[in-house]
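Cross-check.
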Amino acid sequence: MVYRYNNQICHFRVPGFGNSSTVEYLDSSRLSLSTYFAKVADQLVQGLGYTRGRDLHGAPYDFRKAPSEGGVTADLRERVHRGSQQLFSGPP
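Predicted model, tokenized:
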């Protein structure tokens, strides 16, 4: 992701970007108080057969920067597309 501040460019990466674990809890303690999308992710995995990191992804972003500005959505879209191509490139 790229920010421009006072005519300086700042590049940064979010650890775990693209993994659902980054949006399942608001805090790394994983306490029930910090649950964010954990229940949704669990239901997708247990109830519908999704696999974290394979076909279930997450993308936390800074609310001060719109996802449509390119950094978040473009990076996640590229990673998911690349991963899906590798995953499903074999015979049907």
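The chain is about 35% helix and 15% strand. The CA atoms of residues 7 and 37 lie 36 Å apart. Passed to J.P. for a second look.
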